[in-house]
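Summary for the funding panel

The consortium committed to producing paired sequence-structure records for every protein in the target list. Below we show the first two records in order, beginning with the earlier of the two.
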Amino acid sequence: MGPGATYAGSGVSIAAGEAAVDLIRPFTDRTHRPEVVGSIGGFASLFRLPVHKFRDPLLASSSDGVGTKTAIAQAMDVHHTIGIDLVAMVVDDLVACGAEPLFLQDYIACGKVEPERIASIVSGIADGCVQAGCSLVGGETAEHPGLMADEDYDLAATAVGVVEADLVLGPDKVRPGDVVLGLASSGVHANGYSMVRHVLLDIARLPLDGHVEEFGRTLGEELLEPCRIYALDCLNLARETDVHAYAHITGGGLVSNLARVIPAGLTARLDRQSWTPLPVFGYIAGHGRVGREEMEQAFNMGIGMVAVVGADDVDRARAILTARHLPAVVLGTVEKSDDAARVTLTGEHPRF
């Protein structure tokens, strides 16, 4: 009959998984907040909620991934930044309602566990957690031989945060006269990469390792620029100024995401002339002959987070953000309107 079947023979290596856990332990340890109980390796993670610090706490949760940006990371064989993107996608959704991120758990699915590659991914996740002030308390690495190629992987995460019930931000607090501030993105972030790959790699057939003068680096390096993480900046701004709402600009672009925090009867009127999109967006549009409306639906266009602020606090808010090295521009104002559109964009971008 010959030797019996083994798990390793089916393509799953328990030893490689254990080696990966050993390699990532130092990364998770450096993210630990004092509320974390224990370390990774258990069946569940423990976090002591500091209820004594709150009057009426609400827990907030968010789950997301990084989409097909992983294909760029795999093609470049650069894996230490994609984890930062993963953290950004979930913690900045939490912050949009005013919640402080507490902890995060990741899920990595791959065709074959390569411990060093997994460790590189998790090192980026840990970097992101440090930037967001939250703990990486655990996760799961799953090997899917036969379903995924050996070098392929996909990422997802869930984060949990906390906010006082009477400090939740959102459309209930937005008023006519509020000012809309746009917080600069670091690049494409982690949305629209199916379009990016279709235009730049399939249609234009551009090499990822080719130097691009407009970027001052290779195309691949530009596309792998990690998401800016706004969590601590936004939490600080909400403590110091009269912030009414945040909108995390992800899939769907500026208009559809900002519309989620503008209540009925009001419209945010924004002027494209108030900011210049980053060069990468003109590069994509030019190579794919992509129309403005399509670009604005697929990409953040240089604005990664929006803050809706009381009119009296705009100057102070901008000063605080400038001190934190986060560029911010006045995009427009919130007005009463009978128009069904919650957000209206007018004008043309400079040099785009």
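The next record, for a separate protein in the list, is shown here:
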Amino acid sequence: MPTEPSASRAGRMPRFERRVLLGSFVVALPGLFAACALAWLPWEASLRWAFLVAAAVATLLLARWQYRRVVFPLYTLSGLLEALRQGDYSLRGVQGGVLGDAIYDINALAERLQRERLEFEESSYLLGKTLAALDSAVFVFDEGRRLRLLNPAAQRLLDAERHRLFGLGAAELGLAPLLEGPSARLLTHVFPGRSGRFDIRHAALRSGGRGGQLLVVNDVGRVLREEERAAWQRLLRVLGHEVNNSLAPIQSMAGTLATLAARDPLPADWREDFRGGLELIGHRAEALGRFLSSYSKLARLPPPQPRVVELSALVAKLAKLEQRLPVIVEAGASMAVEADPDQLEQALINLLRNAVEASLPDGSVRLRWRREGERAVIEVEDDGPGPPPSENLFVPFFTTKPGGSGIGLALAQQIAEAHQGGVTLAAREGARGALARLWLPLPQAAAPLASLTRDA
């Protein structure tokens, strides 16, 4: 950074001005001297003219000397300003010269412009890299709706080379309808490079005193397809595992029975072998039927029919239904929610059953409810081993329990989400076991009551 000039601008006359004033006085000295000499000394005519010529020559020489002293520093100043105008911010002037104050200001301006140019180039580079990494297509149009900027995703969407797209109008590119209407909407559209369902967003821009428009196109169909594909893959892995668990012993036992039936004569205990094999086949077929029935139950969950449900009465009823372990009910404040009582009861039964089965034979299970802001939270806490470390806990048919159907958590989550709520299952903090939380939004009329309770 340039240092402050040593002379105060308000304290005394700047050096350059003193230099100009002193030089002008020196240039005037020969003329003043000649005028005084001619006025007071009795010179002859020839001497008078010789003296006048000498004074004129001296004045011209001093004027030339003064011209160089004044103009050359201005040339330096003009060169620095020209460099700034051309965008060259690397030149600096010597601050100790006659134009020290002006050189100081120009040096400070050059450093500031150089710093701002570096920041602008870094920002432009970062913006370019960001736009290139985006999956969303970004278009920028000027006030005449001519394309001025697009990223690689936009180029792929239009399926054309960049230099052929710049300068084309939105109508020529087929994008004019997307710039009309609401600023954010979903629609199905056909682009040269892709077709599907897209999220369309546009906004007004202003640069250099001129207007423009920004258009962002996001292929939500592709994202949804990828998520759907991943969900189906997880579901099919679980379905395949469960079906194979039933078909493998059925196939093995059928082969064993076929080999036994082919023996001649039949062994003495063939009836017991056949009876046991058929019982095993029937048992596995029944298990597979229950599995498919569970799938139908999950797939055909009807829309909820909400009405007012008092949580204290519902939780007390659920605690009495479980006979394998005593369920401790931690009573809370009286609270009512709007929900389908049958579906909510089924969701909580599934959470309670999982907790009891994890706590057997000598653990305990606790049920409680409370208000959290604008929602009611019901918690089921157990002393079992805790949930397994898996991301598939709420995937239908995923289970780690022998003989489990794998729909309990999935059904509870589906019911809660149908009521605009949710379900979580996590390990307890600082203790052994799991904590399942089901939350539902409180009715609108209960919101003021919640705020009064907090204030109290």
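Regarding this second record: The chain has four domains: 15-113, 134-218, 225-299, 307-455. The domain at 307-455 is CATH 3.30.565.10 (Heat Shock Protein 90).
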